[in-house]
Design brief:
- By secondary structure, the protein is mostly helical.
- It has a single domain, classed as Orthogonal Bundle (Cytochrome Bc1 Complex, Chain D, domain 2), CATH 1.10.760.10.
- Helices cover 37% and strands 0% of the residues.
- The protein is built from 5 helices and no strands.
- α4 runs antiparallel to α5.
- The longest helix is centred in the N-terminal third of the chain and has 15 residues.
- It is globular, with a radius of gyration of 17 Å.
- The N and C termini lie far apart (36 Å).
- The chain binds heme C (HEC).
- The site of heme C has 23 residues, from α3, α4 and α5.
- Heme C binds next to α3, α4 and α5.
Length: 139
């Protein structure tokens, strides 16, 4: 029998995974650290916020968007190059898409001066999210 503390830790981990915490998502578990970081950044409303349009595996669908396709299994459907192209500029793959061009410099009158000319997501963040997407191999 496990000591009390260990049992509590197991229960906590299970409770957190039901609450949809990205780092305990089934697809992120056991993934390389970069992919786990990517899973956190993708879900973080202050960083990727991909869940506003997509269902991110391991999250409660009721908290997630349905504008874009669910991302479960996307690592099987698309290879790394295709995923990178999507993350850099989804319009280069799907002209007219509402998915933001995360790797293109932000321009236009509504972009705050401090962010002007910078990509919406810096390259190291896009690469971590990409590493996570490639691990999504369960449909
Ligand atoms: C404003 C909504 C929106 C946001 C935010 C958004 N996406 Fe998308 N995404 C879409 C739509 C819509 C599509 C489908 C392409 C199309 O037909 O427009 C798509 C397609 C994709 C695809 C291809 C899926 C497939 O099965 O072909 C991937 C991968 C993807 N998005 C990842 C992301 C990631 C990662 C983020 C966050 C960094 C993100 N998206 C943020 C709307 C969005």
């Amino acid at each position: 029998m496990k000591p009390r503390g260990a049992r509590r830790a197991t229960f906590l981990a299970a409770a957190l995974s039901f609450s949809g915490a990205a780092w305990s998502a089934p697809d992120a578990q056991g993934a390389p650290p970069l992919a786990q970081q990517g899973a956190r950044w993708a879900a973080d409303p202050a960083v990727g916020d991909c869940g506003i349009c997509h269902h991110l595996p391991g999250h409660d669908p009721r908290d997630q968007g349905t504008v874009g396709p669910a991302l479960a299994g996307v690592g099987l459907r698309l290879n790394e190059d295709a995923l990178r192209a999507l993350l850099t500029d989804a319009r280069s793959v799907h002209p007219g898409t509402v998915m933001p061009a995360y790797g293109r410099p932000a321009t236009g009158p509504r972009v705050p001066p401090a962010l002007r000319g910078k990509p919406l997501l810096p390259e190291h963040v896009r690469e971590a999210i990409l590493a996570w997407l490639t691990t999504l191999r369960h449909g």
